[in-house]
Amino acid sequence: MANVATVFLRIVSAGERAVAVSHAAIVRALLGEDDSSYCVPLVIGFRDRCTDVQIGRRWSPGELAEDLLETLGDGDHRIFVRWHSSGGDFDEIYEVDGTGRQAPRGCRYAFDEIAVRYRVRPEAAPPPDELGFSVYPVSGTYLGGNNRFADSFAPFTLTTPAGTSSPAAQFEPASAARLIAALASEGMEPQSTIHTIEWRHQRRAVRIERRFQRSRTSQWGLDDWDNCADGAYLLSRGRAPVVPNEVAALDREFVAEDG
């Protein structure tokens, strides 16, 4: 079985021309000869004045975005591509427009609080909320992996699973990294002090970690375009980058070394 590439496409229309791209055009451009999405549910939608696609491919996205731009044919679109390989750790991101494909880099995601449900709550932890979580108002970014492998070849589905995720890493800024390091050191053998950690963005859980006995953990990635912190992507949406230039440079080097 080939490595599964979970591919997220965001089709951005130029200027004020934000209309949903024809689903039929997307299907014609993106589905292969077997008329299916490889091991990942195919999801197509329109939100935030953009058309979004989730699709699975063998090994990598290949030239999905280039093929789709050629099908659209009007030169009035830009496509951002986030993708995760089942054989790798973290998502990559790049964009394709009329000038070609831009350089890939590690894809950063933003969070604005960390919520922890303790089995045994430390005295210094914030008091629990109505759901039993101690909420730390710490914001930052991380490299994360989002796998939507579903072991299914059905061409269409209305929902998408939150696949088991690669662990987040390379937290910024230092205050966020210190809190994560402190949480990682709490409660190892024989029973974890921490039950669940949620990284949240605008009150939505974007990454979940469950801890079990004997240091076993499970993680799920729920990152999406709403908490994508890539600088070029944010600029395309009229927002200022949040990641320092030196960190963005390291994210580009991460992809170059991985390749």
List the helices and strands and how they pair.
Blueprint: E1 4-13, H1 23-30, E2 43-47, E3 50-58, H2 64-72, E4 77-85, E5 92-97, E6 100-101, E7 105-106, E8 108-111, E9 113-118, E10 134-136, E11 140-143, E12 169-172, H3 174-185, E13 194-201, E14 204-211, E15 217-221, H4 231-236, H5 245-258
Antiparallel strand pairs: 1-3, 1-4, 2-3, 4-5, 5-6, 5-7, 8-11, 9-10, 9-13, 11-12, 13-14, 14-15
Helix pairs in contact: 1-2
List keywords for this structure.
5 helices, alpha+beta, 5-stranded antiparallel beta sheet, 7-stranded antiparallel beta sheet, 259 residues, 2 domains, single chain
Task: Explain how this protein is built.
- With 259 residues, this protein is α+β, with helices and mostly antiparallel strands.
- The chain folds into two domains: 4-107, Alpha-Beta Plaits; 109-221, no CATH class.
- It has helices spanning 23-30, 64-72, 174-185, 231-236, 245-258; strands at 4-13, 43-47, 50-58, 77-85, 92-97, 100-101, 105-106, 108-111, 113-118, 134-136, 140-143, 169-172, 194-201, 204-211, 217-221.
- Strand 13 and strand 14 (204-211) form a beta hairpin.
- The longest helix has 14 residues, at 245-258.
- The radius of gyration is 19 Å and the shape is globular.
- Mean pLDDT is 82; it is low at 152-159.
Helix and strand sequence: EHEEHEEEEEEEEEHEEEHH
Structural category: alpha+beta
Shape: globular
The gyration radius over C-alpha positions equals 19 Å
